[in-house]
């Protein structure tokens, strides 16, 4: 019986490793997750807009196609939980109902902050503990420190790599080709 389990386990491992080896970082991956139909969206995106994403991280995050491109890039690095957490916090800050505030806070904490959370973000122990204490009386600002740390991590680490990535350079090339 054990002999039957080993090949099956190896097969599964080979499949997982095969998926990892086919990790892609290309313009085509970006178009698959665009908020609109890819061709129409790219026709709307100007070279100027895409170039402005390099001006600042916040400019990138404020543009829906910039956000989509950055998300696609983070997926290639297996770190999209950082952006998803940041976006969840932005949505959380718009919550006006006290009842919804508490339930949303709990969901965000369990999904991103708690130790062994399914999409745990990389924050230090002190920030995690402060956020845990903030959960006793959730408020609009209970995730501010954690969100700030994640924003800073993405800005200093992922954002510069995004600007050098094939996703971004291919996208710029595509918008420039339309002008020719």
TrEMBL record:
GO terms for biological process: negative regulation of signal transduction. InterPro entries: RGS (IPR016137), RGS_RGS8 (IPR034949), RGS_sf (IPR036305), RGS_subdom1/3 (IPR024066), RGS_subdomain_2 (IPR044926). The keyword Nucleus applies. Keywords: Cell membrane, Cell projection, Membrane, Nucleus, Signal transduction inhibitor. It is found in: Cell membrane; Cell projection, Dendrite; Nucleus; Perikaryon. It is a peripheral membrane protein. It comes from the Eukaryota. The keyword Nucleus applies. One of its GO terms (cellular component) is plasma membrane. Pfam families: RGS (PF00615). Residues 56-172 form the RGS domain. Gene3D superfamilies: 1.10.196.10, Regulator of G-protein Signalling 4, domain 2. This is Regulator of G-protein signaling 8. It comes from Anseranas semipalmata (Magpie goose).
